[in-house]
Amino acid sequence: MGNNSNAGGGTGPSDEEWARFQEEAAAGTAPAPREPSARARMVTERLRDTQGQEPPGWRTGPAPRERRRPGRLKAVLAVVAIAGLALIAVRPELVIDRITGKDEARQEARKAGPLPAESVRPTAPPPPVAPDQPTVQEPFRGSPALQWADGAAGIEVPEATAMGGMSKEQVADALQKAKQFLVAANLDPATLRGERPAAALALLDPRQPEIPQRVEQYLTKPTEEDTPALLFTRFDPAKVKPVGDVVKVRGSMRAEQGEPGELRVVTDYTFVHPMTKGGTSVQRTIVRRQVTLSVLDPARWQATRGRLQLHAYLSEWSNVECKAADGFLHPDFPTDAPAGPAPTGAAVDPYDRSRGIEGEGCGTVTRS
């Protein structure tokens, strides 16, 4: 056998020598393998020190490439596993959502188009959606309102026809003014941050008996029962702020004849306001209002031409503190300690527009 200890690196045994060695080994007469040379031992030690592993076997040539890959693959897998653990630690819902199918449900909800306009009150609540928590990036996630219209676009004015002794143009004007009132009372940024709802008040008839004084009392001396929240959606800007600039809206309005010389505009709308205290906590305040406005013929009634009078108004607020007395709606965040009296009323679905607004007091919601 050749010796590979030469400084210059000698050649290995010839084919004839190797074949002869194999025959002698089979006959038991082959000489014992020589010890590695001093240079070979030096190279071995150097490889062991620099690579932390044994070099390929002496005289066997380098190990097959397949035998080295598993070690490298394990290292890659270890990195992936560590990254995966970090992902779970930071955003566990991402992994859990994939396992539970929420991620797929969210994708389908995002792709779903907006619902057609609501021309009449529905006969059933919205179908259930996969329960999910709102986020600052997706404040309507897990809510039926995700497919509702944005803001004033959700208040669609029906086609006008002449009725009650009023022309088509007069009816159309009454419908448009009703929409303006709802927008000013529930969507106007100044109203939402607790300022005086001047645009809404300007549409109301100052000659209507008692109502102007009552509304003024709501605004200046609010109580639990006499609160401006009966008509206007208002939040305390020192405590909460809107998440983005979109409020989801769904509902309908219609014109109908009232008493002689009276046209009524009957409205029923639900507004979904995503609110936050800052950070990542989001709560959806759901406000439903059934407001009937009247336009009166000044020749028959004590009224100002072109102004609206309040005929009736009912309101319902969800995910807010019970019995606030300061004139604001206070979102009740899941992470907060309970505030105000405990709810004692029945559980309702705040998105169910098939039912009427009935009763008083505080209840609980079946979804938020």
Descriptive overview:
This protein is an alpha+beta fold and 368 residues long. It is built from nine helices and eight strands. The strands form two sheets. Strands 1, 2, 3, 4, 5 and 6 form a six-stranded antiparallel sheet that branches. A hairpin with a 5-residue loop joins strand 4 (262-276) and strand 5 (282-296). The termini are far apart. Mean pLDDT is 80; it is low at 1-11, 32-44 and 49-78.
Q: Give, in order, the helices and strands.
A: HHHHHEHHHHEEEEEEE
Q: From the alpha carbons, calculate the radius of gyration and give it in angstroms.
A: 39 Å
Q: Write down the overall geometry.
A: globular
Spans where pLDDT lies below 50 across 5 or more residues:
1-11, 32-44, 49-78
Would you spell out the secondary-structure blueprint of this structure?
Blueprint: H1 15-27, H2 38-51, H3 65-90, H4 92-100, H5 102-111, E1 149-150, H6 168-186, H7 189-192, H8 198-201, H9 211-220, E2 241-242, E3 248-257, E4 262-276, E5 282-296, E6 309-318, E7 347-348, E8 364-365
Parallel strand pairs: 7-8
Antiparallel strand pairs: 1-3, 2-4, 3-4, 4-5, 5-6
